[in-house]
Every structure is written in C-alpha cells, then in structure tokens.
Amino acid sequence: MHRGETSAGTAGELMRSRFSAFAVGDESYLLRTWHPATRPERIGFEDGTRWTRLEIVREEDGGPDDDKGVVEFRAHYVTGAEPGELHEVSRFVRRDGGWVYVRGKIIDS
Fold this sequence. Notes:
Elements: H1 11-24, H2 27-32, E1 49-61, E2 68-79, E3 82-95, E4 98-106
Antiparallel strand pairs: 1-2, 2-3, 3-4
C-alpha cells in the first residue's frame, strides 16, 4: 500500500499502514495520508527509535460505509535498550474517497 497507493478500506487499515510507514521511515506515505488541514511540513522521526508492534485497542466507526472513525492504539517501540509505548486515540475522515488521518490525542499510560 505504501508504493503510491493510499486507499485503505477502513480507518483501522489506514492506521495499520501508517504504523508500518513509521516503522520503515516512509515520510511521503505518512504525509499523503494526513489531512491537509492538520498535516505538518515534515515528520519528526526520532533517531534510534525502532517501532516494534501495534496493538489496536478499539475502533469506533471508520468502516467502508462511514465518513469518520476513531482508532485507539498502543504503538510499542524501543529506543536504545529502553522499551516504550505510545497510547493514542486517533481521528480519521474520508476525503476524496479515501481515509486520512486528522489528529490524535495522546493518552498518558
């Protein structure tokens, strides 16, 4: 899906593909799948961080017939020898027939 294609069928599928893009450092895919109103100019990848696992906690709407959706997830990573976790509730909308990431709220774990 990263090689120019951005058409995930659900918000959850887009979340999974965006996690994979973070894991491989695919900035162009992340920017293409980010809503233009909230998209940054660049992605701030952290040196030495390796994303290891994505855990979907819940999905609310975001299906093939929906226009918006929410995905709560925990993204696990390692920086150096230190494990970490990013817990976020992300909002997605359908735009021009495809899903895009709008914004997320980080949940303190």
